[in-house]
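Example 3.
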Amino acid sequence: METGGDAFLLSASLPILKGKIMTELELKRIANQVRKSILTGVYSAKSGHPGGSLSAAELFTYLYFEEMNIDPKNPKDPDRDRFVLSKGHTAPGLYATLANRGYFPVEDMKTLRKIGSHLQGHPCIAHTPGIDMSSGSLGQGISAAVGMAIAAKLQKKNYRVYTLLGDGEIQEGQVWEASMLAGHRKLDNLVVIVDNNNLQIDGTVEEVCSPYPIDAKFEAFQFHVINVQDGNDFVQLKAAFAEAHEVKGQPTAIIMKTVKGKGISFMENQASWHGSAPNDEQYETAMKELEEMEAALCQK
Amino acid sequence: MSEVKKIATRESYGNALVELGKAHENVVVLDADLAAATKTGVFKKEFPERHIDCGIAESNMMGVAAGLAADGMVPFASTFAMFAAGRAFEQVRNSIGYPHLNVKIGATHAGISVGEDGATHQCNEDIALMRTIPGMTILNPSDDIEARAAVKAAYEMDGPVYMRFGRLAVPVINDTADYKFEIGKGVHLREGTDVTLIATGLCVSAALDAADLLEEEGISAKVVNIHTIKPLDEELIISSAAKTGKVVTIEEHSVIGGLGSAVCEVLSENYSVPVKRIGIYDTFGESGPASALLEKYGLDGKGIEKEVKKFMNK
C-alpha cells in the first residue's frame, strides 16, 4: 500500500489536535507515511538518496505539519514561512513530505528522477510546488536562506526561514561565509538545522574531515545553539523549535543527532545507503517494516 | 578635436543604482567589501538600509542575492568581474541561473584595463563563462550613457543579468539625441563597405578611432556596437557581414569564448565570411597603466587599425 489517503486524513486532522501526546503519535504516523513515500520514490527511480532523507523524516514532518506557517493550496503566499533544503540530495525526504502535506499527489513519488517529472533529482523552484529554492550543490542553500531572512527584515515581514544542512555539508566553506553574515546581521528569523547523522559518502564525518565541534562553531558565529540529542524524536524537536521562537537578536542553529537510514533496519547507520536505491527484495523488506510500524502506531 | 568627456562605466553603475533606488523600493545593493571600488558607495550613502555588505565572501553574496530575489527584492550583486564570474561561477550557475532568479550582477574591473593590479584581477574570461549559463543576459556597455541605460534596462527585465563595467575612464560616445538602448539590439555607429568592425565595451570607442585611421588608408569600415553579448543581435551581425564580406571582432576579453566566438558561431552557421578576432590572445595580463596595457595588447585605435589592415591584405 502506498497511497497517501491516510496521510491526507491525518494532515487534515492535525490542526485540531492540541494534546502533546496525541500530536506526537499523529506526527509519528505521518513520519512513517513519509518514509514509505521516500522508499517508493527511490525504489521507482532506482537511484537517489534514502539515508539522509530517512534521518530527517521527523524533521521534515515536524516542519511541514507543525512548525511552519504554510498553506499547500497557496504555495507562493508571500507571507509564508520558507524552507531551503541546503542538503538538496535528500530531496526524496522533502518531496515525500510535501506530497503527504497535499502540495501534489503522493502518486507522483513514482515519477521521481524520471524524464518529464516535476520531481528532479535535486529540488528546483521552477518545477515543484512548495519548493522555495533550488538547491543541491552543497553549501549554497544556506546562503539563499540568509538572503530570504534579510528580505523578510527589509520588507518588515514576519515570516521565518528554515534551512536544513548535512553534517558533511558544513565542510563547505560557503556555509561559514553565510553563517558569519547571519550572525553579523542578527537574523533572528533564521533557523539553521544540521542533520548530524555522522555519515557522509566516504565514511563517518570524523574520518573524512571532522566538522566537530559543530555547536561551538555556530556559537562562535554568534548563533544561539540548541543541541538535540535525538532528532528522530518529536518531543525533543518540539522543545528545540519552541526555544528557537524565543531567541531574539541572533540566528538559531539546531544541531540534531539523528540516525542515517532511520526506520529501515538494514539501512540504519550505513554510509552505503547514502546514495543507493533498494532492489526488489530490499524494497519489500523495507516496506514490510514500515507497515508493521504503521500497524503498531495505529494500535496505540 | 576638443577634449572628450571620459567616465568609467563603474561610476555610471553606482550613479544609475541611486536613480533606481529612488524610484523603486525593492532595489537592494550587495557588495563584498568593494563598495568603494564598484562605486556603489553612493547608493550605500543614500540608502544605507538597502545596502548589504556581505564582507569578502563573493560565493555567499551570490547565494544571498538569490534568496533576496526569490522573496521579491531586486538585488544588484556587485564585485569585480574576476570574483563575480570567476570565483562565484558555480553559485551564479546553480543558485541564480538554474532557478532563473531576478538577480542583477554588477561586475566591475573587467579586462586588462584594471591596470596596475595585474593578471590576478584582470578578468578576460567572464563573458565566456557567463555565456554558457542558460537564460543569462549579458550586457557590456561602451560608455557612461550606455552603462546607465543598461542598468535601468536590467532592472526592468525579469531574469538574471550579468553587467560588465570597467575601471578606466572611457570617452562618452553615445551622447546623441537619437540614442536608444534596447537589450539584444546592436547599435550601428558608422557606415562602411569594406569590413565590419564589431566591438563591445570600451573597445567600441577604439573601433571608431580605428575606422577613422582606416579611412585615411582607403579602407571603409562599418562599425557596430554589440552591447548585449547575450541574447546576441544575430540579424545585425549577419546583415553587416553580408554587406561588407569581412568581419573583425574587437573586445577586451579572451578571443576564446567571448564576442569573437559568439560572432563566429553565428556567421559560420548562417553566413560564412572571413572573421578576424581581436582581443586577448590566450594569455594572462600584467601590471601597468591601463592605457599602456591597451596599447601593448593592441586594443587601442592604432593597434586595431594595424590588425585590420593585415587582415584585409590577406
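The domain at 187-312 of chain B is CATH 3.40.50.920 (Rossmann fold). Chain B is about 40% helix and 20% strand.
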